Amino acid sequence: MSKRLFSIVALLVIASMALSACGAPAAGGGDTIKIAVLAPLSGPVPTFGVSTRDGALLAIEEWNAKGGVLGKQIEAVVEDSQCTADPAVNAANKVIDQDKVHYIVGEVCSKASIPVSEIAEQKGVVQISPTSTNPSVTINPDGSTKGYIFRACFIDPFQGLVMAKFALGQGKTTAFIMFDQGNDYVLGLAEAFEEAFVAGGGTVVGKESYTAQDTDFSAILTKVADSQAEVLFLPDYYNIVNLVAAQAKERGVTAAIMGGDGWDSSDLDLAAAEGGFFSNHYSAEDTRAVVQDWVKRYEAKYGAKPDALATLAYDATNLLIAAIEKAGKDDPAAVKDALAALQYEAVSGTITFDAQHNPIKSAVVMQVKDGKVVFAESIAP
Ligand code: PHE
Questions:
Q1: Residue ranges of domains in the chain, CATH in brackets
Q2: Could you read off the pLDDT of 281-295 as tens digits, one per residue?
Q3: CB 308 near ligand 1, within 6 Å
Q4: In ligand 1, which atom is closest to the CA atom of 184?
């Protein structure tokens, strides 16, 4: 071989080595282990995003202080996924294709987590949603489980049952249901509540849908008032709850307003929601040491009590890192198997996954009382 030809061949070999090093999803490369956090930092529900990011980052900081995982530091890649399908899908593609992450914590909102799960499943990236409660996040339309997708929270059929039982237990037998037909979470939780409420002997005296763009709910609220329903079930996020609850007061609606985890926000309008009840994943009033230690560490870092979103983001991130450690390698195929078989003492309870990658956990019912959100009761599955 001539000297010149030799150097061209050598160059080509070096170039192809460099290319495969940066282009490959090969397990265990790089100096850090990257975890993407997809959180709705802007858009309709920004407190969800801030809490989720803060909870996840604290988990990563604690692991790094103890030496990281598999001898490497953990690097967070935070993206604003806006609680909306398109920005969430763009964020997922970006972190997988450009940042080469093998692991995603997120999204919060079911309607963003469901499309992200399709990408993660297809690309072999492990996704754990801290708080998306719609069943379709972890299961395919044919009912099979998505191998790479997990969640750290209970699901809406349980949450709906909890609130139906709670309402009936309060002696309330008539309910009016309001729901956003374009939101997977709201729609699914409304259906779950209706089914359980009727099965338990209650009557649904009215049902009306609206869209996420609506701001004037007076026509529906007039019907709610006329129906004399004892419960107005409103399983939406805090931004919509604030509008509806304030207008309900103006319209003379006397029904007790009830909802789900989507009410959990430092921006919930407590005056408007006074007297309301909602199901949630955790209460900062829980006296267990694991909870009170967590509340202290979070308060020391961020100067506020952790809500359910922060707590579940912390739990979800810890679950993921514990599974990486158990797998013994930075390989999503091995980590998903480790996660499926993991038992973990999380803040929100001891977590093991069922066949559909859902943890079996209790729910709490919170009450808006005297301008504060207080613990009302805990309901086991
Ligand atoms: N469960 C909601 C969803 O699936 C998200 C959420 C969880 C919001 C917890 C607030 C608190 O869309």
A1: 32-153+287-361 (3.40.50.2300), 157-280 (3.40.50.2300)
A2: 999 999 999 999 999
A3: yes
A4: 12
